[in-house]
Amino acid sequence: MASSSNSKFASTFAPYTPPPDDPTHQHHQQQPSANTNSSRFSAPIRPWFPHSQSSIAADSSYQSGAVPTFSASQSAGPSTAPETENRWATSSHLRVDMLAAFAYILGPISALLLLIFETENDYVRFHAYQSALLTTPLLAIRILVSLMRFYAVLRYLFTLLLVIPSLYMAFRAYTDASRNGLSYFQLPYIGPIAEQWLHDE
Predict the structure, then answer these.
(1) Count: domains in the chain
(2) Where do the record's region annotations for Disordered lie (predicted)?
(3) What is the pLDDT of residues 44-73, one digit of tens each?
């Protein structure tokens, strides 16, 4: 009597069926019957986690073999632009205009000193070459005039011929550096030779 009442009581209750709006219920209804065993172990779809974005992230992950990408600011890194040449820098850290003017003050002596010790600035080296080409012949002529015991007037004129061009070129080298933006003032015949020597270095 008790067993019949229990079976009659159990028959009045139907098995649990999920509501129609349950995502898991819809997912199981859409899958074919052949894949019932595999769908039993598949993870339920959660609408609050976007499925498309997670799959894309998984495919492009580093563990899956994809190459990691970085933003433009990270991939750019430090600036690799070539540095522009500083035309005002010198090996001795002295001013360019003063060194260029000094190339003519002592004639070939100052020119030789600059060619030996100033190895960085082209403007100074150009005037050192030009000074050597200008003052060396004039100094040789002046020494020759003294050795041959020319008249004092001629010795004085040759001295002026040596000093005046040297002072003028020292002034031009100084002003061209300080006011004219390192413009090269070339003497006739001598300037192109000095420039060629500079380019051949």
Answers:
(1) 2
(2) 1-44
(3) 554 444 444 444 444 444 344 444 444 433
Q: Measured in Å, how far apart are the chain's first and last C-alpha atoms? A: 121
Q: What is the pTM of this model?
A: 0.57
Cβ atoms of residues 141 and 149 within 8 Å: no
Residue of higher predicted confidence among 186 and 58: 186
Question: Domain span at residue 131?
Answer: 96-199
Does 37 fall in a domain? yes
Q: Are residues 135 and 151 in contact, defined by beta-carbon separation less than 8 angstroms? A: no
Convert 111-145 to b/e letters by CB count within 10 Å (16 or more is b): bbebbeebeebbbbbbbbbbbbbbbeebbeebeeb
3-state secondary structure of 184: coil
Q: For 20, list phi and psi in degrees, rounded to 5.
A: -65, -25
Regarding whether 192 and 109 lie in a shared domain, the answer is: yes
CB of 124 closer than 8 Å to CB of 200 = no
Place of tokens 């003063």: 98
63 contact partners, CB below 8 Å, separation of at least 6: none
Q: Is residue 187 one of the residues assigned to a domain?
A: yes
Q: What does the block give as tokens for 1? A: 């009597």
Rounded distance between C-alpha atoms, residue 114 and residue 4, angstroms: 122
Same domain, 40 and 127: no
* Residue 84 is assigned to a structural domain of this protein: no
Going 19 to 20 to 26 to 31, the CA torsion angle's sign is: positive
Q: Are 134 and 166 in contact (CB under 8 A)?
A: yes
Domain membership of residue 19 (yes or no) is yes
